[in-house]
Batch of 3 targets.
Target 1
Amino acid sequence: MCIRERHACKKLCFETCGDCLEMVTRTLRCGHTTELACYIDEEKYLCNQLVDDILPLCKHATKRKCHQKVEEVACSHPCEDRLDCGHSCTLACHKTKDPDHLTVSRIPIIEFSEKLLRVLQ
């Protein structure tokens, strides 16, 4: 017999019952409901429900797991900036890493320019 909900053990009489694996609906601390094995403590369970949010630095909309802090979510929105050379940045949004494009995409453009000059000569 399960301690928490008094579910009957479904194992044979010579088998140890162990944790109660009966699935039950639980309401988590965040207010979401989910199906969990009876033995899992809903107070310690990390909610995986996807929620809509806005990233604080770039203000792009995103989805994150309910238990994740919004600051831990990487933005997957394409970068909308243009580089000094006029090309569009090909990276995903990177407001937390080199937002001014000081190091991103510089070397490949220089290498491309050198190859282009050799072809044109």
Note: Residues 1-45 form one domain.
Target 2
Amino acid sequence: MSRLTQEENDILNNRTMVSLHLTVDTTAIHSFSLLFQHGVMVKAQVNCSIRTMLCEQLGLSAQYVEDRVKTIFLDGRPVDDIDSAVIRDGSTLALSAAMPGLVGAILRRGGHLAPLRSQIAHRQEKKTLPRRKGIFVLKLFNLLIDELGPNLLKAGVIVRREDLETLFVSLPENFWAGCKKAQVDGREIGGDPPLKWLKKYELVMLRIDGIKGGKWRQFFVTSLLFILAVGCGGKPAVVPTTELVIPQRRLTRIGYAIQVGAFSDLNNAFRLTQTLQDRGLDAYYFIHKTGLYKVRFGDFPSKESACTKAEHLLALGIIDEYYIVGPGDYPRSKDQRYAITYLRNEIVNTAESFIGVPYRWGGASPEHGFDCSGFSMAVYHLNGLNLPRLSEEQWKAGTSISRGQLSKGDLVFFVTSGGKKISHVGIYAGEDKFIHAPGKNKRIRFDSLSRRYFRRHYVGARTYL
């Protein structure tokens, strides 16, 4: 559904539409996925920022928005700053949870690869308009349909009649048999599809009770029901939280590191990484926010000692220009109360920036297995945490946690080569997913802990925060 036409705005403002209220017997939200992907219309106070719309008017907590709403489009353009992007009357707002793959990493708001699509990103509007009642189109994708859809339908959304007709055709055969009540403008009708009652209307206010969401629906607070009904403000929701595990052992912080290179070709970054590794340095490459590959290595106690090492390598002709990365250059939360949560999210964001990158760490050996641990080490080092190099060492360095205690940024371990020796490691990303370097000639990717292969070889998890 594109931006609203003037005719549709006139119809909405004059309230010349019909109300359809259905009460069903526990129907799954997945049956309504196409409706939300195509877009529904929501009454609200417009001329406000996206953050205000999501937190104050739709009742989502700030933590939910930060943790779950990873990709946002406003009128067809990706948004990074939800405080400056303004929703106008008739705007289209599309929301998505984290998407896998390189495209997902590029589209994620504020991600490391966001500069790659800067030319199409949403621009801040200078014109300020007063708040007023209006309508905007809301689109939901992937997990957000499951989490937000049931309460949106219960509160009521506006849909075009033609979209409703398409929805009714796609519903399971037993949907209408399980429909306990159907009302058009408060008048009860039969249990068959009520299309004949809607023919003279272009728009329908749709309310459905009894839709079942998924395991994440607890993040969506019930205050949304009132807020959407009146179309004006409210207080941000409070999200239930789970107490984080406090480990007995923590990783030390990295001191000073050396950063070199700015390669558009991954092969060049790989060759330099290999050269430095051959000299006993735990070097790794990564994608910088500029979109170029850079190489980083070392953990020096002072800037002077890092410069001494860099100058030595420079004299040998191994590196050219270099940059010293200090302790203050790593991600930090401005609010210490959320420091651990912030760091966990940064670890996952960093891991996601590698999605789709060819597996080129090399260094495989019969003794240590594939160099998947080089990936986890690189991600932790980029966030200032001195994770050991090998998977066995990583296993020993962390604090054991159960699978039910897993949080973003923890490491999950597997025995994939027979015996009892740790041979594979990945970074937990939430929702039963983890990110890992699966092996030679493969690309870094998401996988599910619930997959039969990983269920069979999973041996445990470790936390370091």
Note: The chain has two domains: 6-230, 256-463.
Target 3
Amino acid sequence: MVKSKKIEWEIAARRLKNHPALLVYLMADNFASGRTSTYLETTYQPQYYRQFDNARWLDKESIRGYLAVLKRKEKAQPGYLLRIARIFYNLEKMFIRYCQKVSKQKFDQLSNQQLSKVMKKWLLKNKEIVCLDYTYMHVNDFYPNLLEETLIKKVKDYQQRNHYLKILLTPDQPTEIREEKEKILRLAQQVKKTGFNKKVNQAIKNHVKKFDYLGMYIFLGKPYTETDIKKRLRYLMKGEIRTELQEIAEQKKSGQLSRQIMSKLKFTRRQKLIVKTIKAWVFAINHVEEAWNKGILLSQPLISEVLSRLKIKWDDLVQLSEPEIIKAIEKGKVETKIRKKITLRKQDNIVLMCKKKIELFEGKELKKYYAQEKKGQPDLSHIKQLKGQPAAIGSAQGRVRLIITPDSIKEMQKGEILVASATTPMHVPAMEKASAIITDEGGLLSHAAIVSRELGVPCVVGTKIATKVFKDGDRVEVDATKGIIRKLLTN
């Protein structure tokens, strides 16, 4: 086991609980192989990365170095970050095109060796689509602040400034989440008039066929079903459908409105570039999860063949590393000792990259690592107020609903305050019910920030510890204009 006591770790992401080992392995390999560095056109690469204690971590030195590279290259080559965002989006489109080809192929006649080569290429495409994911997190740390600073200088009225910021942060291209939301709202209008008749039921089937992948989060969750859509329709029919559609109509004008704002405020060429770059990153980072989910569903012919030959389930396969998967396919079976590891990894696992070496720990090795690394958790129950970054202004009071696992998404009730480490496309049905949204992670470009602005739901991001401070049922007051959350006394 690699000893890492001297490494200063910092949480880079904490979405839901531990990710399947394969997902984290693919990201670690992007760092270890230099793939991420190649796309960023630099020789710099993070040295340490891990999944541990339900989070993904980078060492502090790598975070500082990563951020320094981005700032330096953007300063030397204005437009560099815009170009990288476009590369990111192109990788997403290439992944979908590749998976569309996979969806039309048959693999049952391939030998184990041939199938292993196909799977190796598929895994490479999975690495490519996510290789710039952490770049977005670092861009999010500093780049939107440049736009905020510009608006503070040019617009004195706080409400007007936030209105402009909302428009300038909205991508000109519609995300698939926004497209799905518009279509389901129009479907809700139709159901309200006619009920669930034959025509509506067919429309629901078509909706599921087009947007089922939005119910997933990469290797987790399940595609939307007709039952899921009917539940959402019943909920949406109780709300202000016309108001929500008007909001979406305004979002469609983002490009035109942004140009008007920049002209009115006399934005410089550099300031316009900042807006263009932010919009490109907002779209690319939201589209990556949509594209990845869609690609995995398209790849079912390949995945099904692999699962059939190995006599294994999908949620077991994704607990293996890439070398373990390839070796199993070549042998035509998963060895007993590996099956035991899968069982242990589903309980908890650690993926550790130290320089170019990647290790997976479970069972006794995992316990040893925890003993080495885990420190006593501080008692946060005394904290009555948190501050984060306002992402969508407004205010709300309500009871907390912690969303920690995919199953807890279904427990969300109308009017509750959604508290999560971060949000993903699979959180959208819960976000629609929330009176406010609070996250540990994120900035103005995060999924929670973008979707909350689209939904018109007050949102505070980047609180760091909201999921540790609040528990289900806590009454809180959210001031998303100032970014403050207060715990209220309960009777």
Note: Residues 20 and 217 are 11 Å apart (CA to CA).
